[in-house]
Amino acid sequence: MDILLPVFQLLYFVAHFLASLALSVIDTFHDLHHLLLRLYSFFVPTAIPACRLQADAAQLKKVPQHLGLVCVGQQAQHIAQLSTVISWAVGYGIRFISLYDAHGTLKHNRPVILKALQKSSSDAVYNVLSYDHSCSPERDVIAGMSIKTDSDSPPQNITVNLLSLEDGRGNLASAAKILSTTGCKITMSLIESHLVTRGQPDPDVVITIGDPFASLAFLPWQIRLSEFFVAPSLSRFEYSDFQTILKKYSRCEQRFGK
Amino acid sequence: MTWIVEQDRTWAEWAALRILRVGPVPNHLAIIMDGNRRFARKEHKDALAGHTRGFHKLTEVLCWCRDLGINEVTAYAFSIENFKRSKQEVDGLMDLAAEKFAKLLEEKEKLEKHGVCIRVIGDLNLLPQRIKKLTGEAILATRHNTKCFLNLALAYTSRDEICSAMNELSQGVAEGQLMTSDISEELLEKCLHTRGSRDPDLLVRTSGEVRLSDFLLWQSGFSCLFFTKVLWPEFTIWHLFGAVFYYQRHYHTLTAARQECLALRQCMVEESDIECCHTKYGDKVSQEHIGAHASARKERIENFLAKLHEQKLYYLQQISNTSD
After folding, report:
1. Quick one: DSSP state of residue A76?
2. Contacts with A166 from chain B: Cβ below 8 Å
3. List of chain B residues whose C-beta atoms are within 8 Å of the C-beta of residue A213
4. Out of A191, A211, A220, whose CB is closest to B217?
5. Do A123 and A231 fall into the same domain?
6. pTM of this structure
C-alpha cells in the first residue's frame, strides 16, 4: 500500500481545481467585456462595414481560400453568430467555407442557416451544399441582402459546405467502395475526385470552436496542410479574434517538407 | 547513444509525475518532432547535428513516457515530402537512421528486457536498400515485445497510407476475398499502416507550427492537439507534463466524442448489412438472413486481414534477408 497516494490524489484534484478556477475567472472577465460591448453596440451600431474588412484583408500577405469551422458540442446551435463569422470571412475574400459538427446539427438546421445567410448584409451569392450517403450534393442558392442586381460586376460566389462526421472518414470509405469496383490502380487524384469537396481547394485554416483542441474527424484527407486555431466559444468570438487568427495565418510560412 | 535511456528524476519531477498519474494518462502519444534545423541554426551547427540532437531527445522522451505510463509513442521521423530536401541532408538523415537501427539491433536484449516493440509505418520501398534491410530486421527482432510500442514514421504520409490501404482493399475485391459491400470505415482503418495500434490520444507538435503536415490525418480525429512553441531538441519533461495536464482537462469530452463516432460506425455497418440482404432476398428478409450475412462478412474480413498480416510479415522477412 502506497501511503503517499492520497496526498498525490489530493494534489491532483487541487491542481485541476485551480486550473478550472483560473479559467472561469478569465471567462467571467470575458463575459463582462462582451456585455459592455453589447451595451455599446446598442447605442452605436458596430456591424463591421465591408470596406473595413477589405482594408484589413489588404494588409495581409495571404488570405486563406477555404476556411473550416469545427463546432464542438453545443456551439453548432449559435447560428446567428456563425453567419456573422461567415460575413467576416466573405469580406476578407474567402471563397469556400466549411461548417462542421460531428452530430449533424448543422445539417438539420439547414433552413435556419439559409435564413440567416439571407438576412446577412453581404453582397454575395451563397451556394449552400450538403451531402447525403451517395455524395450527391443538395444545393441551395441564397443571395445576401445588399446584392445589387443592376451592378456591372457579377456578385461573388461563396460556397458553404455543411458537413458532419460521415463526410470525413465515411466519405473515404465510400470512395474506397466505389473505386474497388473499378479494379484499376488507385491514385491520390482518383481518390480526390470522389470526395465531397472535389473541385474545392483544401481548407487552409481550421478554427475549432469549443473546448478541446481537436479536429473531431473533420475531413481527414483534406486537412493535410491546414493551420489549426482554437476559439473558446462562438458567443465570445469577436471580430478582433478572427482578425488575429488570419494575421497569424498570413505570417505562417509553409515549407512543404523542404 | 542508446535507445533506452534511464534517467533519475529530481524530486519535483517525481512529484509531478506521481500527481499526473492519478488521473487519466494517454495510452498513445503522437509526436511531430519539428524544429531540429532551427535549433542547429541557433546553435551555429549544421543541420545534421540538429537531427542527431533530435534523436537523443526522442530516446529521452521515451524514458519519460515509460515513467508516466504512456505505452505507445508514434514519432514522425521522415516524411515522403522530406525527400525533396537537399541530397546532403537526406543522405545525412539516412546515415543517421542506419546507424541508429544498427545500434538497435545491438541492443536487442536490452529492448527485450524493457519490452519495447519497434514498428515502422510508411512506404519502406521508398527507402534506400540498406535502410530497408535494417528496418525489416529491427521490426522482426522486436515484434514479440508487448510492453511498450514505438512507431517510427519513416517515408510516411497519411495520404499515401490511405491510398495504399484502398489499393489493398481493391486487390482483395479483385481476388474475390472481399465483397464491395464489406468495405467500411473500420475495415479501411484496419488496412492502414497503423493497424493493430490504437488511435493516438494526444498529439504534440513542437516549434510553434500548427499543422498536421500529413501525419496521422485519419487516426488523429479525436486526439487532443497540443502545439507548443519550443523547438524539439529543447523539449523538456515539463512540456510533456503540460501536454498531459491539458489532455486530462479534455479527457471526458474527447472520449465521449470518440464513443459516439464508434457507435455511428456500428450503425452504418448494420444498415449496410440490411440493405445488402434486401437487394439479395427482396422483401422477405428475416433476422436470420441478416445474421447469416453479418457472420459471413465477418469471416471474409477476418480471412482477408489474416492474409494481409501474413503478406506483410513475408515482405519484412524478404527485405531483411536480401544481401547488400
Report:
1. G
2. 264, 268
3. 224-227, 250
4. A220
5. yes
6. 0.91
Q: Is ipTM strictly over 0.95? A: no
Min distance A116 CA to chain B CA atoms (Å): 28
Distance from CA of B109 to the nearest CA of A (A): 32
Q: Tell me if B220 and A215 make a contact (CB, 8 A cut-off).
A: yes
> What torsion do the CA atoms of B235, B238, B242, B245 make, to the nearest 10 degrees?
140
Judging contacts by C-beta atoms under 8 Å, the chain B residues touching residue A183 are: 170, 173-174
Split into its structural domains, chain A has a count of: 2
Residue of A4, A13, A213, A244 to mutate when probing chain B, most B C-beta within 10 A: A213
Q: How many CB atoms lie within 10 A of CB B196?
A: 12
Same domain, A202 and A140: yes
Look up the domain containing A22 and give its range.
8-46
Partner-chain contact A228 B210, CB within 8 Å: yes
Which of A9, A180, A258 comes nearest B84 by C-beta? A258
Structurally, at CATH architecture level, domain B25-265 sits in 3-Layer(aba) Sandwich (3.40)
pLDDT per residue of chain A (258 residues) written in tens, 0 to 9: 578 888 999 999 999 999 999 999 998 998 898 888 878 877 766 677 778 888 888 888 889 999 999 998 888 888 888 888 898 898 888 999 999 988 888 888 888 888 888 887 777 888 888 887 666 777 888 777 666 555 556 678 889 999 988 888 888 998 898 888 887 888 888 888 888 888 899 999 999 998 888 888 899 999 999 999 998 888 888 888 899 999 999 987 777 666
Instruction: Assess contact for A242 and B224: CB atoms under 8 A.
Output: no
Nearest-angstrom CA–CA distance, A188 and B313: 26
Instruction: Answer left, alpha or beta for residue B151, where phi above 0 means left and psi between -120 and 50 means alpha.
Output: beta
What is the CA A200 to chain-centroid distance, rounded? 15
Shared domain for A145 and A239, answered yes or no, is yes
Residues of B in contact with A220 (CB under 8 A): 158, 162, 217-218, 221
A76 near B CB under 8 A: no
> Residues B297, B300, B302, CA angle at the centre, nearest 5°?
105
